């Protein structure tokens, strides 16, 4: 199936970058023939394009558009931070791998679109919390920059940041503090502590 090739390409890209996405290697990993590949893709570049675009859709359609329907901006903030920091998906190796190929002509536009969508969502979220546009934009940049740093730490030095373990006991207090810090001064913020699993329920 086409989806199997796309996932295999993402999995291969994580440890090895674009160069690791090779049709002969993926056929062995999937246990299927090269004919199956050419049934779904014209060439390797077509697969290189499809894989990051699938990742992009999982971010924009799977997360951002879903959370836009959460009515409370505080709940949206807690939900997006909980997903970004404290779910198994937030520890995936795909995004750091894509970032290492940020100047690649296929990868660059995808990263730009995802970054723009995330910043738009966060800026609108902080605006909905009652912050003025300039402050909302600043908080969005703080939030996104912190996430990228967190992702890199989890990817490169997980032993030094036990707080980054999504199943760890530090997850709840860390998330509560993060929400409070980012929403400080926002007229519409009510940042009382809650369990990180609560955000999963509010995001569904």
Descriptive terms for the model:
Tetracycline Repressor, domain 2, mainly alpha, 204 residues
State the share of residues found in helices, binned by percent. Answer: 55-70%
- CATH fold-level assignment: Tetracycline Repressor, domain 2
Our Rg estimate from Cα atoms comes to 19 Å
User: How many domain modules?
Assistant: 1
For the sheet with most strands, the description reads: none
Average pLDDT works out at 81
CATH class term: Mainly Alpha
Task: Tell me the span between the first and last alpha carbons.
Answer: 28 Å
Total strands: the figure is 0
Order of helices and strands: HHHHHHHHHH
Q: State the helix count.
A: 10
pLDDT < 50 stretches: 191-204
SS class: mainly alpha
As a percent range, the share of strand residues is: under 5%
**What global shape is seen?**
elongated
The CATH architecture can be given as Orthogonal Bundle
Describe the structure in your own words.
With 204 residues, the chain is an all-alpha fold. The chain has a single domain, classed as Tetracycline Repressor, domain 2 (Orthogonal Bundle). 69% of the residues lie in helices and 0% in strands. The protein is built from 10 helices and no strands. α1 (2-16) packs across α4.
Quick overview of this protein structure:
The protein is mostly helical and 204 residues long. The protein contains 10 helices and no strands.
Task: Set down the secondary structure blueprint.
Elements: H1 2-16, H2 23-30, H3 34-40, H4 44-67, H5 73-85, H6 94-100, H7 107-128, H8 133-156, H9 171-183, H10 196-203
Helix pairs in contact: 1-4, 1-6, 4-7, 5-7, 5-9, 5-10, 7-8
